[in-house]
Amino acid sequence: MKMFLKLILAQVYGMSSRFPDLPRLLNRAWRIVVLFPFLMASCSSGGGSSDTGSSDLANSPIVGSWITPCDSSSGSLSLTTAIEFLTNGKFTKTVSGYFDLTCSIAAFDTKTTGTVEESFSYVLPDRGTVSNINFVTKTYSIIPRSDDSVLFFNTQATCEISDWEVGVDYDISSCSNRPGDDVSRRPTPYADYSIYLVERGQLFYGNEISFTAENRPTTLSTRPAYIRSSGVVGDEFPLELKGLWIFPESDQYVELSGQGLIRFYGRTEQGCFGFNFLTLFSDGGGQYHDPFRIFTYIIGESEGNLLLSFGTNPEVFTYMPSTISVEQLDLCA
Q1: Which of 68, 158, 193, 250 could disulfide-link to 210, CB 3.0 to 4.6 Å?
Q2: Any idea what DSSP says for residue 17?
């Protein structure tokens, strides 16, 4: 993507410099090595074996699909996470790794499935009603999403598999030498114990990891782990600011829509448009914060243009009304 969108993503996710210029294959292979611990650590929170069962979640607020925006905090690559909870107490979690900083150039996915049990609920002062929740991860798999990933996995004979193919789901639940850190290599099934709260389309977990029920956290994280895939219940932007805007003389767009949803679009190296999103909550006076409370945005209007700034001592970026709609953008698949 061009420099302006990179700047926005750097501000949002704390990105640092890119990898040095290396031959393409070596560069991608090295990124896979670095990406594995980053990616695998996001697949679960740890734990040991457990016989915790699933529970009926038919009336639970956790049921449904949850996601994270593109995370480039490693400074060299990026990932997204999606998790779905079913009413029968099962879950599927997919962490997708990318070779770039904007979640556009797919590398591979890791997928875990298991069961979840919800139990005792109580009121946590100043936060609301929280519930105990136990996760048991039972299966673990990798799906390569690029030829570079396949070549790397086959060269390394990852998990003693030498016939990796793009798009094929490889079950590595019993693999004792999975790539990643020691936590990533623990045998299945393994359990995590936490508490959770659903608030305005945001899913909060406990503020620390616990491998046993006895050490279950008693306070919540101040940042949500996920937001609803349909968008969080944010605060509405002024009607005159909603719509698609373009940064002058660039391929960078920003879209303001309902429930405080803001999307940044930019042309990728492949020629299509990638995008990232946040949902913003109003602090009044044109000031907003994101669900993860990374920093503050100031959004306003001047002479028919959109003014956007964020961070400490922010520069003000001026967008003009777009002459095309989002539907006319060639979005990356």
Answers
A1: 193
A2: P
Question: pTM, whole model, 2 decimals?
Answer: 0.74
Strands (E), the chain: 64-67, 78-85, 90-98, 106-124, 128-144, 170-171, 190-199, 202-205, 226-228, 243-246, 252-256, 261-267, 273-279, 281-284, 287-289, 296-302, 305-310, 317-321
Tell me whether the omega of the peptide bond preceding residue 189 falls within 30 degrees of 0, making it cis. Answer: yes
CB 290 within 8 A of CB 14: no
Dihedral sign (CA 102, 12, 280, 195): positive
**In-domain check, residue 84:** yes
The residue assigned the tokens 């074996």 is 49
Q: Which residue has the higher pLDDT, 54 or 170?
A: 170
Q: Check residue 239 and give its pLDDT.
A: 93
Q: Which two tokens stand for residue 119?
A: 């139990």
| Domain extent for 65 | 57-228
Residue 272 neighbours by CB distance under 10 Å? 13
Q: How many domains does the chain have?
A: 2
What does the DSSP 8-state code read for residue 248? T
User: How buried is residue 294: exposed, middle or buried, by Cβ count under 10 Å (0-12/13-18/19+)?
Assistant: middle
- Residue-wise pLDDT tens digits, 69-122: 888 877 778 888 999 999 999 999 999 999 888 788 889 999 999 999 998 899
For 41, the token pair is 């650590």
Same domain, 215 and 248: no
Same domain, 281 and 154: no
